[in-house]
Fold:
Amino acid sequence: MKILVINGPNLNLLGKRESSIYGNESLDDIISSLENICAKKNASLLTFQSNAEHEIVEKIHSCQNKKVDWMIINPGAFTHTSIAIRDALIGVEVPFYEVHISNIFAREEFRHKSYFSDIAQGVICGFGTSGYESALLKILDKN
Structure:
């Protein structure tokens, strides 16, 4: 099984920015933890982070060629703005979980709208970086 984890803008700064909201773990820490889980479950983990919307769209499109079975996506700020990423996710028909480290519904009102939640298999928000692990374990339990 192949699982792609996509992280959007500014998530490369995890562990360095707004620790009161996002915690102290870096993106590398999160990925390392997910890789350890996948190694035990004989699953393949692909990861991608970009601050550029078009690069995320292209990575989603590549899922068809790479035969990706599932995705976990934290679109960052694109959650609230990107119809292009939404259309790409619909277009490739790969099931995905939407993950947010913070509780987007307890933050500014503009963060309450997600362009992805209604097409996601599920949404995990507000549980810190463990939300990634929860999404991964749910995927692995399904297969």
Summary: DSSP finds six helices and five strands in the chain. The helical segments are 19-22, 27-41, 53-61, 63-66, 83-92, 130-142. The first strand starts at residue 2 and ends at 7. Residues 102 and 116 are 16 Å apart (CA to CA).
